[in-house]
Prior knowledge:
Elements: E1 8-9, E2 12-13, E3 18-19, E4 42-43, H1 46-49, E5 56-58, E6 60-63, E7 71-73, E8 76-78, E9 81-83, E10 91-93, E11 96-103, E12 111-113, E13 116-123, E14 131-133, E15 136-143, E16 156-163, E17 181-183, E18 201-203, E19 219-221, H2 226-236
Amino acid sequence: xxxxxxxxxxxxxxxxxxxxxxxxxxxxxxxxxxxxxxxxxxxxxxxxxxxxxxxxxxxxxxxxxxxxxxxxxxxxxxxxxxxxxxxxxxxxxxxxxxxxxxxxxxxxxxxxxxxxxxxxxxxxxxxxxxxxxxxxxxxxxxxxxxxxxxxxxxxxxxxxxxxxxxxxxxxxxxxxxxxxxxxxxxxxxxxxxxxxxxxxxxxxxxxxxxxxxxxxxxxxxxxxxxxxxxxxxxxxxxxxxxxxxxxx
Length: 248
């Protein structure tokens, strides 16, 4: 019988590195699916489209609207575009965003629980202190967003990409990050305690001082990012690093 070739993954960090079986359960790495865009959008107004319980918004364009400081349950955005919109300090529970574009908007301190993003692209958005907890994110791209102090605790992220984002001191504790890609991101001081990171990829990221570093088993880290990570890992394991010229 002819010999069969076996593809191996030699870049993973953790005890499970080595051959990967086709049905191992790890997500295939691919770009997120782009949002479905309607042919046209109707303009939204605060008077007619303010946030309210169980409100549903379809094929609407929210431009420079102030929706800050609201509180609503079960709100749905379907094929909507939010540009320059202010949602800061708003509290949403059980919200759904499907096939949406969110651009240059203010989502700072937005608190969202048990909610979902599906085929959503967020770009150049201010999201400092975002609180997206116990939720679902699928087919999502964050591009050039400010996400420092954001929290994704207990959320499941599938086919999600963070590109050029400030994620310093972000909290991914207990999140499922299998297959998530971080590229050109600042993750200084981010927390990964008890996160699932099999297949998570870090490329050209700042990883200094991250917490829960021992939870990164199965993650893939670019070679030039490994130096800063090694110091954090050594500290977590109680390893003392000395200079080569230190006296014995």
